[in-house]
Design goal:
Blueprint: H1 3-21, H2 23-43, H3 48-68, H4 77-85, H5 88-118, H6 126-153, H7 158-183, H8 191-217
Helix pairs in contact: 1-5, 2-3, 2-5, 3-5, 3-6, 3-7, 5-6, 5-8, 6-7, 6-8, 7-8
GO molecular function: heme transmembrane transporter activity
Protein name: Heme exporter protein CcmB
Membrane topology: Multi-pass membrane protein
Length: about 220
Amino acid sequence: MNTWQSIIHLLRWELKTEWRNRSALGSVLLYVVCTTVVVYFAVREFSPMTFNALYWVVLFFGATVASGRSFLREGGRRHYYFYTLASPEALLASKLLYNILTIWLVSVITWLLLAFFAGRNFVFEPGYFVVSLLLGGLGLGAILTFVAALAARAGGSGTLMAVLSFPLVIPLLYLLVNAGGYAVGLTSGEENSYLLLALAIDLLSLAVGLVLFPFVWRD
């Protein structure tokens, strides 16, 4: 079985397992809905600035919850089973694809919920905003998936994942918040640089994860 076949096989296994249990994805969606409702009760009167800020806050923590359980099922004896089943790169790629798809789903649901509770859609540049969501999901998925692997190999501590992930995602979040600000009409003039720098961070995160993950997994 080559690498691409292993990735597809593992991704199908992830989707089938989630479809049977529905616990991880259900908890993420429940978190997003509850957080958005609490935000609505606390804010009431939305503005473009509050919409943009709250959107990325909800999305970041939703992505953290979604990615934090990535390698919990591969602990103990299952680690040795996956070690012999597929290469570390294939395992990381399958987890990464699953987390990216989940983060994209969370981003769309968060957008719809905030727009519903705000009573209007503050996004004046939907195409630009969608591109920023795609790049944000890719970058958050790459960083959080690799950090989840480190946390799982260190004992599965959620605190460790939070401590490691937050400094790594700050540059990406800064760019995404500014890109979102342009999409809702708050900033202008450097919109292309936000996306290009976000793409550069995404590619760098993917490259670092693919290079370092085999050493983490085989340790």
